[in-house]
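Local shape tokens:
==================
===
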Amino acid sequence: MNLPKRVLWSVVFLLAWVTAQADVTTTNQVAPDVHFIVERLIERLKTPENPHPTNHYRFKRLTSVQEFNRRGETNKNHVTQHRVVVLNGDESAVLELIDNRPPTKKELKADAEDNNPKTDKGHGKHEEEESDGITEEAARCFQYELVATEVIEGRTAYCLAFQPIKGKKVPKSQKFLANLIGKVWVDVSDYEPIRIEAHLREPIELLGGIIGAIKRLEFVIQRRRLSAELWDNNLVEGTFEIRKVFATSRGRFQVRQEDFEILPLESGTR
């Protein structure tokens, strides 16, 4: 059993937020109050992408999902490689390798349906789907505390601890994100998340626990500043424990994005 797509891409998109294994050094910079930092962060979430040359880029995405048996030994290891192109926020991913071999036509078709925008047959319109990303409404479901000002991989950042506000109503599409607790490091210049480390506060039941539950999920997300106006995720990794009906799956996942290349504004490269 692979990690559910909704869970993995919720984590990848959180993709507004991150953590990596890096040396952390405390600075003496005086930080603004936590409310100011959070409001600036939310403003960044609300800012639409503009047709700027740095909003056209491509990269390689390597995804690995390992499943462990009860003794903690690797039982399954699934690896894929995609070529990804982003034009003004519109992402297109093409599967290049699956478990170190070229994909079959059937695998290419199934992967394209999973990783690219779906449309209604005959209408060319996007289907309405529940949001996997962080919205302003979801961001305001957390309580934040300024922990420190630190240097993360050469960039100064505010470290904020966050947890869900008790009793706060959460949109149905955001319940997964609003069940997280952890820390987010916010860049002091751009007010972009540099990294996040988080875990589930409590298990999440699927259809009331009838079909299963996400019993445990811990992850880190690391982001990279590609240019003055562009940030993207370069690493997402974590561990999980999921029950599906009567079977329980435990494992580790990693999504690494590398070989970033900025494309010209007029580029139509796919």
Confidence is low (pLDDT under 50) at residues 12-28, 119-132. The longest strand covers residues 212-227. The chain is about 15% helix and 45% strand.
